[in-house]
Amino acid sequence: MTRIFILVALTIWTASIRAALAEDLAEDLTEARWEEVSQIFSTNCINCHSSHGAAKGLRLDSYDAVLAGGVDGLVVLAGDPFGSELIKRLRGDSAPRMPFLATPLPPSQIDLIVRWIEAGMPKAQPPD
């Protein structure tokens, strides 16, 4: 009888932990909003990647421009952050590392962009 009680208690505990983790993951994905990503781009990228002589034709100064990519094609792939050239450049997995000749972005900012791409690159936060 004690074993059954322990088994039931562990099952309930495991289910509650899974539910909490799923909720945390959902919150992480909804936190990654374009307005936060665009602020990172505005602070670190648009000196070179804006309408004024965008390097390689890649503009990061508007949502539509980010989705359009540059002369070498798309730089973000919805749902595939680690297949996205932007993330490869920000992490230094592809050369040259970005931002070019500047301090790399903090991991927390790269993580926010990763979560935004994982979430499908939403332009606005969905209504509750």
Overall description:
- This protein folds into 2 domains: 1-31; 32-128, no CATH class.
- The protein contains 5 helices and no strands.
- It has helices at 2-31, 34-44, 63-68, 85-91, 107-118.
- The N and C termini lie far apart (45 Å).
- Residues 32-121 form the Cytochrome c domain.
Average pLDDT figure: 85
Uncertain residue segments = none
- Main pleated sheet: none
- Please give the domain count: 2
Written as H for each helix and E for each strand, in order along the chain, the element string is HHHHH
Radius of gyration: 20 Å
User: Helicity range of the residues?
Assistant: 40-55%
The general outline is: elongated
Q: What is the SS-derived class?
A: mainly alpha
Extended strand count: 0
Q: Span from first to last CA?
A: 45 Å
Number of contiguous helices: 5
Beta-strand content bin:
under 5%
Query: What is the oligomer described by this structure?
Result: single chain
At a glance:
Helices cover 52% and strands 0% of the residues. It is mainly alpha-helical.
Give short descriptive properties of this protein.
5 helices, C-type cytochrome domain-containing protein, mainly alpha, 0% strand, 2 domains, Cyt_c_Planctomycete-type
